[in-house]
Design brief:
- The protein is built from 12 helices and 12 strands.
- The protein has 346 residues and is of the alpha/beta class.
- It folds into 3 domains: 56 residues, lambda repressor-like DNA-binding domains (434 Repressor (Amino-terminal Domain)), CATH 1.10.260; 130 residues, Response regulator (Rossmann fold); 134 residues, Rossmann fold (3-Layer(aba) Sandwich).
- The strands form 2 sheets. The protein has a 6-stranded parallel β-sheet, with helices on both faces. A 6-stranded mixed β-sheet has the order 7-6-8-9-10-12, sandwiched between helices.
- α5 packs parallel to α6 and α7 packs parallel to α8.
- The N and C termini lie far apart (92 Å).
């Protein structure tokens, strides 16, 4: 069986990232360590180290939480495209609540010589998440980059959409259209993006409607699942409270909210305006076309890949800590001016 770079790393007592730097002739490795790695590589039968690309170079992992929401595969696609241009092979894995865990994937992929990971909206974004996989990577010296979630105790690159500011802008959009009874439907607050959206929602209300109005909206924040069904179930009670505008934590939630409005015989946007989040493909083609906060998916994925490439090269990513990306408001047919009540006849 062919010796992998991980085997060489274990034999020398260094990280796989260090072996990768030696293989690719990158700086950041002491001369004694470089000499030991080169010797081990030659003994393993590798030729042209530092000049020629070795077969094991750059086998990298991308772990996403699901395939149902197109935002996650699109981030993985952007990561994979950038890594492929750099000559790496990417393994994309899906870690669901009822499927294979992040830690199981990390253990399996490390055994196959994977030299780095990108985690998209994983356990790092969950306040109750299991962090064992990340500790395992630290022990093996394998770099990782995290998308949409932040762990300040971990020294790694984190890249996230600025959910708070995006939600604040969505509230401002509805307020500018005359809406004063505005609600928020998000996923469970244990997830960092949802928690940040709640912060942005209240910030937007205070800025546009005043502190008193914001306090009156305390009961208009509803947590639900990130599904069409979740959005529909959450929207029903909000309609009974006179809501005329709603900001949703995902496009799927927003589609469910639209369905609930129509089930009551009401119109979108004539009676209720709806804002989604992500602006995933096809949202311009639904009826009505959905107003949504567009996540910078391609920029996030490309930046995550660049950060991982910098880590592998021993250069250190230029933005350790958390780097926030701005979402763009895409206004379409699901939002409109508040409809004024018809004047009564004299």
């Amino acid at each position: 069986m062919r010796t992998t770079l991980r085997d060489v790393a274990l034999a020398v007592g260094v990280s796989e990232a260090t072996v990768s730097r030696v293989v690719n002739g990158k700086p950041g490795v002491g001369e004694q360590t470089r000499a030991a790695v080169l010797l081990a590589l030659r003994e393993a039968g590798y030729e042209g180290v530092g000049a020629a690309r070795l077969p094991e170079r750059g086998l990298l992992g991308v772990i996403i939480p699901e395939l149902d929401n197109p935002a996650f595969p699109l981030v993985a696609k952007a990561v994979e495209a950038r890594l492929a241009r750099a000559g790496h092979v990417t393994v994309i894995a899906t870690s669901t609540l009822d499927g294979t865990s992040e830690q199981s994937y990390v253990e399996a992929l490390l055994a196959r010589g994977v030299g780095g990971f990108v985690f998209v909206s994983g356990q790092h974004a969950d306040a109750r998440g299991e962090r064992g996989a990340y500790a395992l990577l630290v022990r093996h010296g394998v770099p990782a980059v995290f998308v949409n979630g932040f762990m300040p105790e971990v020294d790694a690159p984190f890249l996230s959409t600025d959910d708070a500011t995006a939600t604040e802008r969505a509230v401002g959009h509805l307020a500018a259209l005359g809406h004063e009874r505005i609600a928020l439907i998000v996923g469970p607050s244990r997830y960092q993006p949802s928690h940040r959206k709640v912060i942005g929602f209240h910030r937007g209300l205070e800025d546009r409607l005043g502190a008193a109005a914001a306090a009156a909206h305390e009961g208009l924040v509803v947590e639900t699942s990130y599904t069409v069904e979740g959005g529909q179930a959450a929207m029903g009670p909000l309609l009974e409270q006179g809501v005329t505008g709603v900001v949703c934590g995902s496009d799927f939630i927003a589609l469910g909210a639209v369905r609930a409005v129509r089930a009551r015989g009401l119109d979108v946007p004539g009676d209720v305006s709806v804002v989604g989040f992500d602006d995933t493909p096809l949202m311009a083609l639904v009826d009505p076309p959905l107003t949504s906060m567009r996540q910078p998916i391609a920029a996030l994925g490309t930046a995550a890949a660049d950060a991982l490439l910098a880590e592998l090269a021993g250069e250190g990513a230029p933005h350790r800590g958390e780097h926030l990306f701005r979402a763009e408001l895409i206004a379409r047919g699901s939002t409109g001016p508040l409809r004024q009540p018809a004047a009564s006849a004299p």
